[in-house]
Amino acid sequence: MYVTRTLSQFRKYQKTLSEESPEGPFSGVLVITDEEAETDDTFCFGMCKRTKIEKLPFPQDKILSVVHTDSSGNRDTSVKKVLFIPALDQPLSSNRYYVVHARGRHKGKVCVCSKEIEKGLCCFPDILYEKKPKPLDPRNIYQTVKINRHHDKTFFAKSVAPDGTPPSFLKKKGWELRASRSLHPRRPREALGLDDELRARLPEFGFSVSTIRSGSVIVGEWYCPFMFVKENGSVSHQMKKSMFYRMTLSQYWERIYHCENNNLDDTNDENNDEDEGLVRVEANVLREANYVKGIEAVKGEKEGRGGFYWYIPVQGLRGPGERRRKTGSGSARMEEIWVLCVGGELWIEKSRWSFVG
């Protein structure tokens, strides 16, 4: 899961690029373009926008074009539209990214570096065949590249793996990066992560005994790139709907058990004076529940590339001619949720996770 920070902040305070993610393991930072950064990227008295990106870090609220030009620099010879998603558990100063195809037949898949050991496996011993893009697996180091600056405000990529080679359009030195299209209106907004002070505080308890559920308090907010979530339908449709899911952690009181007090005669209670005002309850209660679109769901076993957990609704699974509705969540995302939920003391109030595309 990712918190968001503004591009203008990093331009002003370069040292903040080296800060670790405040959210602990399985997390990262998304860079979003704010109004101040947009103003800085204009010229001719604000009449024209500068599309060329000349410095790191790269923004995540725009589709970017990796552009190769001819020797004269006047003609584009190759254009690839991609998303640069910062690698998990790395500061932005590491310049490590997952490069996700935003167009074409590999849309939604992540670039994979080839291994030197695979060179010459066919008829040509000196040729290294490029790997096809694959769905993201955060555990696969060959899906992470490091972006380096080149002269004339251009870039090139290297594999994080010592024996890896990035796809040629990233490896070749001197490519330009241009802002192709904003993800507006579904681009990431401000998400500051966990509010430790609110998280440690119990929700207000001033409601009547007949209340089934109290009002909720949002104690944390994040964004999750689409690669960590699976839905029914194609990845292309998922990306069209939203490339980032907004995630919130809220706390509230909810009635999970109740019983009637039929013993109104306290005369036989030897410890009546000591126990006045106390009620003893011994009962088994549900500790955890999962929901998909408000319907209780069953959590399946981890499966597939990237280690996805599938959540399948227990009711209304399938009507005549209907597809089975289910949602998959990447194991890295689930690990982060687990870390946040068990951190600190275990309260008897209820915490609820929700994410919206």
Automatic annotation (TrEMBL):
InterPro entries in the cross-refs: DUF1262
Entries under Pfam families matching the protein: DUF1262
Protein name: Uncharacterized protein
Organism phylogeny: Eukaryota, Viridiplantae, Streptophyta, Embryophyta, Tracheophyta
